[in-house]
Every structure is written in structure tokens, then in C-alpha cells.
Design brief:
heterodimer; A: about 750 residues; alpha/beta; Rossmann fold; Barwin-like endoglucanases; six-stranded mixed β-barrel; globular; B: about 200 residues; Alpha-Beta Plaits; three-stranded mixed beta sheet
Chain lengths: ~750, ~200
């Protein structure tokens, strides 16, 4: 057998123009390169990265199935073409076409009225990632707001709420990750609830795990579901009951402590709070991590036997994994994000970080500190586009927008309000750009739409998008935005990427659709801030501005926009030949390079958390805490199954749900174990109703051994499609999820939901 | 006899992401329901409760298949109009002018490669991106794979094709496919009584 040596694939056919372009970013978890074939004003084909070389230092950025199927979205017959104004009650779905002038006069007028009536804190731009390049998406709406008096701010995210807040309680930073080229130095990788094959987590992250395996790393995937990563990246899959990962982690610590596997030297010199000998000042005599694990105070040793009852993972397996992880050096415990979108999601983050510390895997090549793991070189830059400064200092956690509608005035720190003692107003106007977070992606859809239907609460709702999404259905005015292929943009690599991807405008928008930026500029003009908004730049001009910013901060060799465009390279890469290792300085010299924590050390025990005075929900050391909805509570009598919603390659959250090639590839199904199906009389392919007290969804099921018993898996993001009785037929898991938030991060806990399943 | 093209599929690394399938559809403009390349999910095993613990021997793996451009193409043998021909270049092609869309080839092919296209009323299938190949470029599926698990290689006729018998593939002696499979670790456990194609609706629309 001989490998064929074929050249790059991209090749223009007669009449075609080839343009290398960053794949439209929708918060997919990657940033890839496409080669667009443009002919007669239309994109006719999309190829992947065609650079001839493909090395770990500078790998091809091969787009996934969603990028390659993008034209089915781009040229979808349901694209929004004109501004719409609702006629009839909000949410009734009756619309009238209006002109841009009428629409923007209305929007600008309402912004002015609400600002004058209630103050700027009554205006709100929700979290949104439906368009995610520098020039497209909600940040242009934030710029508009900030230049016209401000609006209620947001902090945190849906994706990383608990991990964003919990990681710094241990390490004082979010930059806890080594660059991926260093994964090749690892001997053992725990993919703990981590599924890069499906949710990406950086273009090529799955491929880097493959390379690490080829270098001899053993890999173990711990997940309630045998994910594509468990199938293709792991030597072993360990199913675990959702929401109990912290229990297994704690029991692993028990094994390490009782069997002498803790890296005692590292813990002594680099950590605080492991045992009574190193408690932070003022905390002597409090329960240390060792106390908790051994049950010194509560009388419950957190043994593998203890954890087996909670997690369903066999005790021998827990002990074996603890030994493997503690003795195979260096090793990585990579935490996924799904398990922190749960009740007490902060605990699993802290527990994972502590295991990394106990095993001495922090600050070394091939190791991994766990936690969020942003890049030590400053990667993951997100926005450089200048949204400006918000004159309104108050902000709410993104997940609590509905609370700020219901009872915003007077809301304070107990609801996560930052920057002000109390909110001065309820939310009265929402300008929702590139977001489906008001309905489709937020918890408890039936509650959300009830809140939105009440026109005395949110008095005016503008939605700006490319399709009539579930959120847009509740709008008073819908503004048609163009896709990212229809305007200029620029983006940098997602979390790990050491590259800048250019997104030149390829084709004209259909109908009257405009760019997010252009719409913002035209509203700004009506509010007297047109010149301040644009500073004389169009979209391309701002891309040039963003390139200057990238060049100043992270990419000194970045070419000018003219040269970048002329080269048709599509991307600029900073190859990684010497991968950075987080905490290397701290590892070498903890006195000279202390962490940015109160103690300067890794805080296994956090005095700051202790001082919050809520030990049952926010303990000073990471603990397993039984969830507020679980198989162990009384709710399990009526709702015995746990519902989880994985990220499917059918969609990026709710984007692409209407893409027929992707629906063909990954039809929306409720995945159920045959052991749960049989007593319910459910056969493979049956329509099933999944329900609880919050709502119901009906969709076909697929029986699979790949989901553990007791769990029903409904991929998140399907478009909500209620019937007259309010029962969803789109397979949207958020009719089942709860709006209750995590205690410290005020983050989503949507994966904590108990349900029942029956034949529909 | 001699060297010919074959797909080399590293099943151990395939995540079932179907990027190859989408790239193929984009390259050839295929409508929903026509899958020149398909990805099968094979699954088996089960669960046992021991006390509070779940013990599982569940397993799964994927199989990405297009047309294997067999050296002894049974599709061509059964075609009543002679529309399917294996060329000197080793590529098996369907002549759409001659094809009457009777689907005998689809029934005969043990790989599910020939696909009926309602637009033309004829059978269609993977042509190995022949136009690209002739110009020295790889097929769209090969260059698309995010896991670098799919390659185009050349093999000698009669080369060891043991992996190409991985369940649920037929005995390669039937058609001598241009297919080399690096089996997933769990592939040896799979057979007609221990595993099944779990995503039938996705591969046979």
C-alpha cells in the first residue's frame, strides 16, 4: 500500500473566484478556514483548508461538517429579507413588512422613550453568540448603546459560567492551560466530560488528542454518554451518573491520600488548605480538604464505596483510575464544560483543579492544571472591536435576564448584580442581536415566553437575525441581518488558535438584509451618534482597525489589510514550536512568582469562599453536593430520569437547525437506553413524550447502549415548535430545564433536570 | 492487474462527524437523500447492575463508506443496460445516458454505494472526484477529514484486505473492493449477533 501524494485540493472552475475566508463563527468552539468558490455573485462551493502543509505547529484548520454544509443555511429559502413589524399579540406570529426607515425610526424612538422614561438601565442587550466575528454580533449593539447613554450590562456567559468563576478561586486566573502542542508530552489523559470531537473546543483539539495517543498516552473518557470522543479518542469509557463527577473526584482523592499517592512535596510548597498544617491565616481549625475527604468532621469517609453509590461507577474502577492518574506522569485531567452547567457546578471545577494539584501536574510539560484552561500566551482574545465604555455601571449575570425583567428594580448582589447596590429599573427594552437566548436557548421556555408575552414588562423587543427564530417570534420588530459571508469580518482562533482569520465580503445580502454593523450605525445616526459610532469607517475599515489591534497585542507580523486581502491567504498564523506551559514560573519559584490568589498559592481551601458564609452551597473546599433535582430526591418518584443535552454536530446551539444536510446527518432524537425503554413499552424509533412540571416535548427516540440507564439525552438547540396546547414538537430540551442558577457564579444549571418519558 | 486506488479508513480515529459526507455533498451538489458517502454507526454490548454500580460492555465505532471502485464490481455485473463500467484507470463509473434507474446495482452492491437521484431518474455514486484526481488533487472527502482518518492510497490487487471485512462489511473476496480499514479496537467484538448498525435511518434515507 502506498500513500498518494496529491496536491492542495482547491481549484477554481471556469468563471469562479476562489476566496479563502474564515468560517462564519457561531460559537461552535472552532475557527476554521474555508475556500469559497464564488461565481456570478453566488457562493457555489465551500472547500476546506487547502494549505499543503499540515503540522502540529501549524495544522490545517479543517472545517467540520457544519462549515462544509454552510451553503444550505446561506441560501435557505427562509432567510429574512425585509424588516417586519408584529401585528396582533406578541408571539402570535403575524407580521407586516415595513420599510427600513419605518423600522429604524420605531426602534430609535423606543430607545429614546424608554431611556427618558425609565433611565438607561431599562435597556438591555442580551448575551448572544449567533454571529461571532468582530464585526458581526451583539457587540455592535453594545457599542450603539454605550454611545447613546448606556444600558444594563451583563457579565459571565452561558457556556462557562461556573468555570469562569470557580477556576480563579483556585488559581487566581483563567489562563490555566498549556498550549496543545504540549499535549503530545502527556502520558495519560482523562477526558472528563470532555467531548472535543463534537463540541470542538478549538479546531483540531480532537486531532491533538489523537497525536498524543500515537505518542503513547493512555486516554480515558468519563461521561454519562459514550460520546464520539469516547469512541474515537479514548482507550476506555467510564459511564458516570450526571451531576456526580465531584463525588468520583473526591473518592479519587481518598485513594491518593490513603495510599500515599499525593505529591506531598508539591502540595506543601505550592498549595494551601490541603491539611491542618497549611490552613490560610485565620482559618486554623477549620475543615481542611483532607478532613473532608477522610470524613474527619462529618463522619463520612469519601471512599470509592461511598462514591459508587452516588456515581454508579464501580468502586474498583474509581480506585484504579485514581492510581493511574496519580502514578502516570505527566498526566492531564481535562474538564469538559457540560458538567459545570449544573446545580453547584462550581464544585466539579474546583474538585478537578485540586486533583491536578494533588498529583503535581501543575506547571509541567505534559501536565494540566485543569480549570478553564485559557492560553498562557494570552490567546482567546474574543472581542477587540471597541464596544466602548458603558455609562451604566450595573450589570447582571447573563443567565438572570428574566429575573431582571420580572423584578429588576431593587435587585442586588443576592442576584449577582455587580457595579451597583441595586438596579434602578426593570428591563423595559431589549435589543436582541444574533441571539436565541431569550427563548430557545434559555432555561424553562414556557416560563420565558410567559414573561415576554406580558407587554407591560418588556415594552419593546427588537430582534435582529437571519431567520425568524424562536426568539424573533416574540419580537415587536424584526430586523433582517446578513450572514457573515455577506459583509466584512475578522476573527481569531477559538481558545487555542494562534491565528487570525480574515472574512472578506463574498456576496451581496439577499433582499434588504444588512450587516449588524450597518444597522447599528443607522440607529446611531437617528440618535445623534452616527459619527461617533462609525468614526468614518465602514465594515472593512473596522476590520483594518481590528487587524491593527491584533498586531499591537498578539500578532506583530500581521500584514496590512490590503496585503492580507491581496494574498488571499485567508489566515495569518503564529506557529507554535515551543508550546507555553501555564504556571511554569510558579512551579519553579512559588515565592518569586506567586499566583494571583489571596495566599499566592493554589487554594485548595479558599478563605474568600469561606467568608461568604454559605458552606452548604459554596464550601471552602470542593465537595460533592447533592443536586436540587436528582435521582436521590423525592422528585425522582415522578420524574426518575435525568435529562442531558449534548452539543450536536447538527447545529451550533440553535444555528443550523434548519440546515437540511445536517438534519439528514444528525436527525433530532431522544437517546434512551433500552433498559429504560423496555418497561415503558418504547421501541426504537417511537415518538416519545419527555416531560416534567415545566413542559413537554415530543420527538422520535433512538434506543442506544451509548447512553447510560437513567439518562435521556436530547441534543440541545432544536427549534422550539409548540402546538396549541404548548407541547413542543421540535425536540427542544429547554421546555424541561430549570431557570435556577448556580450559587456562586449565578450561572446556568440547565443540565440539572429530572424528567419522565412515555410513548407519545 | 496492478496498482489501483483505495480508500484507507482509520476506523479507530473516526468520530462519526460526517464532515466527509458534507464535503462530498458540497463537491457534487447532492440533494438530501443522496449520499455518495455515508457514515455508519455500529454499536453493541449492554449493561449490568451490580449493587449500586453499572457495569457496561457497550461499544461503538464508525464506518465511512463511499464507492470502493471494486476490481470485480458486482454493480456492473448486474446492470441490465451495461451502464456501469470499470475503466482502465480502475474507476467504476455509471453512464447516466445509458442508465435507466432500475436500481439493480443498488440491490447488488454490498456497500450501498449506488444511489438513486430523483432529479435525473438515474443511479449515481462516488466517482472518486475523478476530475480532481486527474488534476492531482485528492477527493473532497479525503481532504476534509478533521481527524485525518481518511486517505487515498494505491494498493496492489490481491493485497491483504483483512480490515475490509470489519462488521458489517461483506467478505472482500466478493468484489475485491478498493478499501483498507484500520479496525477500531472494538471491531473484533462485533458481528451479526453482537452488534448492529445503530443509525440505519441516517445512511439509508
Amino acid at each position: 500500500m502506498t500513500a498518494t501524494h496529491l496536491g492542495p485540493s482547491a481549484h477554481a472552475l471556469p468563471g469562479e473566484r476562489l476566496v479563502r475566508v474564515g468560517c462564519p463563527a457561531h460559537n461552535c468552539g472552532g475557527r476554521c478556514l474555508l475556500v469559497a468558490h464564488v461565481k456570478d455573485g453566488r457562493i457555489v462551493r465551500l472547500e476546506g483548508d487547502d494549505r499543503p502543509d499540515d503540522t502540529p505547529a501549524d495544522p490545517q484548520l479543517r472545517a467540520c461538517t457544519r462549515g462544509r454544509a454552510y451553503l444550505r443555511r446561506q441560501y435557505h429559502p427562509d432567510r429574512l429579507l425585509y424588516p417586519l413589524r408584529r401585528v396582533g399579540p406578541r408571539g402570535a406570529g403575524r407580521w407586516a413588512r415595513i420599510s427600513w426607515d419605518e423600522a429604524l425610526d420605531l426602534v430609535a424612538g423606543e430607545m429614546r422613550r424608554v431611556r427618558e422614561t425609565y433611565g438607561p438601565g431599562a435597556l438591555f442587550v442580551p448575551y448572544g453568540t449567533g454571529s461571532y466575528s468582530q464585526l458581526n454580533g451583539s457587540q455592535v449593539a453594545r457599542r450603539l448603546m454605550n454611545l447613546t447613554g448606556g444600558c444594563l450590562g451583563i457579565w459571565n456567559s452561558y457556556s462557562w459560567a461556573a468555570i469562569n468563576v470557580a477556576t480563579p478561586t483556585v488559581y487566581g486566573t483563567l489562563q490555566t492551560g498549556n498550549q496543545r502542542q504540549d499535549w503530545l508530552n502527556s502520558r495519560y489523559i482523562l477526558l472528563w466530560g470532555w467531548n472535543p470531537a463534537e463540541m470542538r473546543d478549538g479546531t483540531n483539539s480532537d486531532w491533538f488528542v489523537k497525536l498524543a495517543r500515537e505518542r503513547g498516552a493512555r486516554t480515558v473518557c468519563i461521561d454519562p454518554r459514550m460520546s464520539p470522543s469516547a469512541v474515537s479518542l479514548a482507550d476506555e469509557w467510564i459511564p458516570i451518573r450526571p451531576g456526580t463527577d465531584a463525588a468520583m473526584m473526591t473518592a479519587m482523592a481518598h485513594v491518593m491520600i490513603t495510599e500515599g499517592l499525593v505529591d506531598a512535596g508539591f502540595v506543601r510548597t505550592h498549595c494551601v488548605g490541603f491539611d491542618a498544617s497549611q490552613m490560610p491565616a485565620g482559618c486554623d481549625g477549620e475543615e481542611s480538604y483532607r478532613d473532608y475527604v477522610l470524613g474527619t468532621r462529618d463522619g463520612v469517609p469519601k471512599t470509592p464505596e461511598w462514591a459508587e453509590r452516588i456515581t454508579t461507577v464501580p468502586r474498583a474502577t474509581i480506585a484504579r483510575i485514581a492510581r493511574e492518574y496519580a502514578t502516570t506522569k505527566p498526566a492531564m485531567l481535562y474538564q469538559g464544560y457540560g458538567m459545570q452547567r449544573r446545580a453547584f457546578g462550581e464544585q466539579v471545577v474546583r474538585a478537578g483543579c485540586v486533583l491536578a494539584a494533588l498529583t503535581g501536574n501543575v506547571g509541567i510539560p505534559g501536565g494540566w492544571a485543569s480549570g478553564l484552561a485559557n492560553q498562557p500566551d494570552g490567546g482567546c482574545g474574543w472581542y477587540v472591536f471597541p464596544a466602548g465604555e458603558n455609562p451604566v455601571k450595573a450589570s447582571i449575570p447573563v443567565f438572570l435576564w428574566a429575573e431582571a425583567v420580572l423584578r429588576g428594580k431593587g435587585m442586588g448582589a443576592e442576584h449577582g448584580v455587580q457595579g451597583a447596590e441595586r438596579l434602578a429599573s426593570d428591563i423595559k427594552l431589549i435589543y436582541a442581536v444574533a441571539t436565541n437566548c431569550l427563548v430557545n436557548q434559555h432555561a424553562n421556555i414556557n416560563r420565558s415566553v410567559e414573561i415576554l408575552r406580558d407587554e407591560s414588562k418588556v415594552e419593546f423587543l427588537v430582534v435582529q437575525d437571519q431567520f425568524l427564530t424562536s426568539t424573533a417570534r416574540y419580537a415587536d420588530v424584526v430586523l433582517p441581518a446578513c450572514t457573515q459571508f455577506e459583509t466584512w469580518g475578522v476573527e481569531d482562533g477559538w481558545k487555542y488558535g494562534e491565528e487570525v482569520l480574515l472574512m472578506p465580503k463574498l456576496v451581496e445580502p439577499p433582499g434588504e438584509a444588512k450587516s449588524d454593523y450597518r444597522i447599528g450605525a443607522e440607529i446611531a445616526e437617528r440618535l445623534g451618534a452616527g459619527a461617533a459610532f462609525t468614526e468614518g469607517r465602514d465594515e472593512r475599515g473596522w476590520v483594518e482597525w481590528c487587524l491593527d489591534e491584533y498586531r499591537r497585542t498578539r500578532f506583530p507580523d500581521l500584514p496590512s489589510l490590503d496585503a492580507f486581502e491581496a494574498s488571499n491567504a485567508g489566515l495569518h498564523v503564529k506557529p507554535v514550536t515551543r508550546p507555553a506551559v501555564a504556571f511554569a514560573d510558579f512551579r519553579r519559584d512559588p515565592e518569586g512568582h506567586p499566583l494571583d490568589t489571596p495566599s499566592g498559592r493554589i487554594e485548595i481551601f479558599s478563605k474568600a469562599l469561606r467568608d461568604l458564609g454559605r458552606p452548604d452551597a459554596i464550601p471552602a473546599v470542593p465537595k460533592y453536593i447533592e443536586e436540587w433535582e436528582s435521582p436521590f430526591g423525592p422528585e425522582a418518584a415522578r420524574f426518575p430520569l435525568q435529562a442531558i443535552g449534548h452539543h450536536t454536530l447538527h447545529r451550533v446551539h440553535s444555528t443550523h437547525d434548519n440546515n437540511d444536510w445536517l438534519a439528514e446527518a444528525f436527525p433530532q432524537r431522544a437517546f434512551l437506553n433500552p433498559l429504560d425503554a423496555a418497561p415503558r413499552g418504547i421501541a426504537d424509533g417511537d415518538a416519545v413524550k419527555v416531560w416534567n412540571d415545566r413542559g413537554a416535548t415530543v420527538l422520535p427516540c433512538r434506543l442506544t447502549q451509548r447512553v447510560m440507564p437513567g439518562v435521556v439525552d436530547i441534543p440541545e438547540g432544536a427549534w422550539w415548535a409548540p402546538d396549541a396546547a404548548g407541547v413542543d414538537h421540535g425536540g427542544n430540551i429547554n421546555v424541561l430545564t430549570s431557570e435556577r442558577w448556580t450559587p456562586l457564579a449565578f450561572g446556568t444549571a440547565q443540565h440539572t433536570a429530572m424528567v419522565q418519558v412515555e410513548r407519545a | 492487474m496492478g496498482a489501483r486506488y483505495a480508500f484507507r479508513f482509520d476506523q479507530s480515529a473516526c468520530s462519526g462527524c460526517k464532515t466527509c459526507q458534507a464535503a462530498c455533498k458540497d463537491r457534487h451538489g447532492l440533494p438530501v437523500g443522496v449520499l455518495w458517502r455515508r457514515v455508519y454507526e455500529v454499536a453493541g454490548g449492554g449493561w449490568e447492575r451490580v449493587g449500586e454500580a453499572w457495569h457496561s460492555d457497550a461499544f461503538a465505532y464508525h464506518l465511512s463508506l463511499a464507492c470502493n471502485h471494486c476490481a470485480e464490481p458486482i454493480c456492473a455485473e448486474v446492470c441490465p443496460t451495461g451502464a456501469i463500467v470499470r475503466g482502465d484507470d480502475g474507476l467504476v463509473r455509471i453512464d447516466r445516458e445509458t442508465c435507466v434507474g432500475c436500481r439493480y446495482c443498488a440491490w447488488a452492491c454490498p456497500y450501498g454505494a449506488p444511489q438513486f437521484d430523483e432529479r435525473s431518474g438515474t443511479m449515481t455514486k462516488c466517482d472518486l472526484c475523478a476530475a480532481d484526481l486527474a488534476a492531482g488533487r485528492p477527493p473532497a472527502c479525503v481532504s476534509s477529514c478533521p481527524m485525518r482518518a481518511l486517505e487515498l492510497v494505491t494498493i496492489e490487487d490481491g493485497a491483504d484486505a483483512a480490515g475490509a471485512a470489519t462488521f458489517p462489511l461483506p467478505d472482500p473476496a466478493l468484489t475485491s473492493p478498493g478499501l483498507v480499514v484500520v479496525p477500531h479496537r472494538d471491531a473484533p467484538r462485533a458481528g451479526p449477533r453482537t452488534a448492529r448498525v445503530a443509525n440505519r435511518e441516517e445512511v439509508a434515507p
